[in-house]
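ok so dumb question maybe but i'm new to this and my supervisor (M.) told me to 'just get the structure for Catalase-related peroxidase' and walked off. so i did the thing. is this what she meant?? sequence i used:
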Amino acid sequence: MSSDTAVPPTAVQVVDSMERMSGGTYPGHRRSGARGVCFTGTFTPTGDAEGLTTAAHLQRRTVPVTVRFSNSEGDPQARDGVPVARGMATRFALPDDGHTDLIALSVPVFVASTPEEFFTLTKALRPDAATGHPDPARVQAFVAAHPHLAGPIMQQPPVPVSYGTAAYWAIHAFIWVDAAGNRQPVRYRWEPEAGRVDLTAEEAATQADHYLTAEIHERVKGGPVAFTLQVQLGEEDDPTHDPTVAWPDGRKEITAGRLELTGPVHDQEQWAEQGFNPTGVTAGIELSDDPVLAFRAGAYPESFRRRNENR
Ligand code: HEM
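this is what came out, is it supposed to look like this??
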């Protein structure tokens, strides 16, 4: 039987619970994706998306981007050499004015279908006072009560050689809208041009705690680090509301563009303070009916407020 709250949780409750799951608060840091590093670059659309969406950054003009790679943990000192998701948050500067964001993780599906499930999961993952780790019995009880989440929760994110050798999924469905108002559900994935290259468990165990940050600086110095933006086109009955369910592999996919990192931002501190916006779409793109996506609209500003208040 499910133990989720009957009343939907608030952003305040969920961010409180995320803090407890992370073993406390880390002043000035994001409540998830706490340690990160930012790079500038460019995004050049292929033009293949232009008949499907009017979004300005997906037409023909190259636009500047800022990318933040992160370790998904809330503790900024968390080790990189363990199988946790990594983040890739991208801000596209729009050709005329403003910006739009695309936030992705190195796993194809999320661990909860609803905010209620996510809230309950964060409680099950709180560290036990005696061991400092989540209590396996509590996690098992959560999975037993939510059998449809067993696969997503048990997925082992790879430990990549580099932030530049991981694939990143934006997970939720979004809706592209063309000039005539036609609507096309889509899902995004960043695919690394260097290929997906992971460490073995033995190699991962011997890496420096924060090796991914040092590695990506070196890699970008050595030459272009690039990703292509792959877009899966959903069909009639593909669910758009559930971030735990991937669409079938055989769906048509287009390459919407190529992102190239050119160097670290010169003001990491200032970028660390910024907040990316998971629902910050632009004309030609709409949010889907995914309740987790809608919930993030309140949770991110709550974390932003806390981290910039208690620096
Ligand atoms: C109920 C679901 C979720 C909640 C409550 C949640 C909450 C949060 C919060 C509070 C932050 C810190 C925001 C800040 O301080 O700026 C964050 C960061 C982040 N989240 Fe989520 N999240 C959820 C789902 C997801 C999903 C589905 C993805 C992937 C598509 C994702 C990817 C990320 C990434 C990459 C970051 C770091 C962003 C950055 O570099 O600024 N999250 N999340």
